[in-house]
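W.,

You were right to be curious about this one. When I first looked at the sequence I had no strong expectations either way, so I just let the prediction run and decided to look at it fresh. Below is the sequence, 230 residues in total, followed by the output.
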Amino acid sequence: MAIMENITSGGAPMDVHVATPEGAGPFPAVVLAFHRGGIDGFTRDRADRLAREGFIAAAPDLFHRMLPDTENPLPLLNDKHIVEDIAATVDHLTGKSECNGRMAIGGHCMGGRIAFLGAAVNPAFQAAVIYYSGNMFKTWGEGETAPFELLSGIKGPVIGFFGNDDKNPSPDDVSKIEAELTRLDIEHEFHRYDGAGHAFQNFLRDDQYREAAEKDSWSKTLGFLKRALA
């Protein structure tokens, strides 16, 4: 079952798309940081799929402080607000009787960057799932430190998926992130796909979608979450 729930973050109302498994629970949860398309058909599909596998999936509307007709919300994103929105979503989930308190964060594109940021600064997360996380080396808005420089705060294992034809993050960017996780002794596994670029999971984009990479990465994602949140 998926519904839009309304909570408060930073004194402002924020919608959260919540998909809950059938049954009594309690269940582990995944905070799902969306891509630039927001809570669109792709994000709802990922949340629904997670719910069918036994996870509460919650996608907060990280654009909620912006005007509805904002043509390009990306330049207006603010790391300070993002951290607040993630924390508010975590608090909302932990207050649910259906949630057992085990929690991961995951995301695609800008959501992959946000998943790294959330995993680094919020101790509620026991694991992180990263899809093609660009812009790791810069801050947004009032952010003082880039996500890459915060990786030491991650408390659990990380799984990451990247296309070798991507330019943001480029293969060199991915190698730099992987080397830093290794240096920090953070458990991780990265998977890279030839013939795939950015957004290879997004079935709404015929030009970017790569079925083989999508299926393989999603299968690995589910296996990872079931192990990490067991």
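Here's what jumped out at me. The first helix runs from residue 41 to 52. And, maybe more interesting for your project: The two ends are 22 Å apart (CA to CA).

Coffee later to discuss?

I.
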